[in-house]
Amino acid sequence: MPISDTTRGLLAEVAAAVRLQEGPEGVAHVIRLVGSSGKLPLRDVARAARLPVPVLAAMRRELEARGVLERGGGLSLSLLGMEMLNELGGPWVAATCPRCEGSGVDVPDRYHAVLHALERLWEGRPEVDVRLDQSFTLPLSNLRRCLYALDRGALLGKRVLFIGDDDAGSLAVALLARELGASLSVAALDVDDRVLEYIASSAEREGVSVELIKHDVRTPLPPERRGAYDTVFTDPPYTLPGLELFLSRALEATGSAGGAQVYLSFGRRPPGEAVRVVGLLVRMGLALGALTPGFNRYEGASVLGGTSDLYHLLVTTEASPTVHGAQEGGIYTAELRPHKREYVCRTCQSSYKIGPGRKWETIEMLKRAGCPKCGGHTFEQRRKYPTGRAG
């Protein structure tokens, strides 16, 4: 059945209303997902569609207003939505492996002790600092990423560096090495003292060794760190300037002799920005060994849809940083796209504006302090109609 002009027009209207860079096909993809999976929570649909939660929430409102979706226990299609689904090809059965969740990495039984240790340590992690674009990778995802690198010869006997390690990936590598009885050196470089203290105390508790480096990557790596590593993991800020800076520091760490590997975790970008990401990798002399969409799973991270992609990058002899010297401009989302939000106390309904220059820069700060009027610690964002893509 050909797609009718009415359906094409509706898809285009919704895409335009939420400024979806994927266009009408992005809206059609969400309708297919909902029709194929039944009632799903918003966050699950966002993860499957690889869209930021705020963007999908805006799309849901548009589709509900047009009678395509209906509420009730998650997203579900109305009768009109089912008719549209048939025009779009009908429901399909997802081919994603349920065991590895599409990552391509299963966790053998012999590594379950490592997973359990990561789950224990997870409880003691510090609170995320959204000003630094922090979000924690789930323990299973953390271990999968290490096993992915292990299979590619990037860990055993290697000098491993994590540039930005709020995920505590260095702990996962150290625990994995202990389980294998293997030798390697692993270091965690971060600007956040809380992250470094958490890694230090966790490593001591587990009896493993992680070298800790306090450093702000806005400045070049110290001379003794340049060319000192075989493998680098990095999960940079959600911005293109942040990506370029962190990858430049990664190349400082490996040098350009060739043979080193970089494991980059970076959120899915809309098509226009995705082209710029690939262009940046080419300019830096980084060969794309593989790209696994949605490999990493995070707690929260609504801007990322709860996931990010894993890039396996190979350092060539032509590799070179594109950022030299100190970074002057902003690299974090809050610096490049500052915005203020309003939150309402669920207990007394008092409202507070959150954002740069305010008394509380993040909702986490307000929650810790409590509502000045009643002392409550739970708040709900007062939402305004979105004007575009988040993140």
Keywords:
Arc Repressor Mutant, subunit A, 3-stranded antiparallel sheet, Rubrerythrin, domain 2, 12 strands, globular, 13 helices, 7-stranded mixed sheet, 391 residues, alpha/beta
Summarize this, please?
This protein is α/β, with parallel strands linked by helices and 391 residues long. It has 13 helices and 12 strands.
What CATH architecture of the largest domain do you see?
3-Layer(aba) Sandwich
* Helix residue percentage: 25-40%
- Counting copies of identical and different chains, the oligomeric state is single chain
How many helices does DSSP assign?
A: 13
Which range does the strand content fall in? 15-25%
User: Which parts are unreliable, with pLDDT below 50 for 5 consecutive residues or more?
Assistant: 385-391
Biggest β-sheet description: 7 strands, mixed
Order of helices and strands: HHHHEEHHHEHEHEEHEHEEHEEHE
Strand order of the largest sheet: 5-4-3-6-7-9-8
How many structural domains does the protein architecture include? 3
CATH homology-level superfamily of the largest domain: Vaccinia Virus protein VP39
CATH topology of the largest domain: Rossmann fold
Instruction: Give the strand tally.
Output: 12
Name the overall outline.
globular
First-residue to last-residue Cα separation:
37 Å
Question: Mind explaining what this structure looks like?
Answer:
There is one protein chain. The protein has helices spanning 5-17, 24-37, 42-49, 53-65, 79-87, 112-122, 139-151, 169-180, 193-206, 240-254, 271-283, 333-336, 363-369; strands at 69-70, 76-77, 159-163, 185-190, 211-214, 231-234, 261-266, 286-297, 307-315, 341-345, 351-354, 379-382. The longest helix has 15 residues, at 240-254. A hairpin with a 5-residue loop joins strand 1 (69-70) and strand 2 (76-77). Helix 1 crosses helix 2 (24-37), helix 6 (112-122) packs across helix 7 and helix 7 (139-151) crosses helix 8. 37% of the residues lie in helices and 16% in strands. The strands form 3 sheets. It has a 7-stranded mixed sheet, sandwiched between helices. It has a 3-stranded antiparallel sheet with strand order 11-10-12, with helices on one face. Residues 385-391 have low confidence and may be disordered. The protein is an alpha/beta fold and 391 residues long. It has 3 domains: 5-87, Arc Repressor Mutant, subunit A; 109-315, 3-Layer(aba) Sandwich (Rossmann fold), CATH 3.40.50; 338-382, Rubrerythrin, domain 2, CATH 2.20.28. It is globular, with a radius of gyration of 22 Å. It has 13 helices and 12 strands.
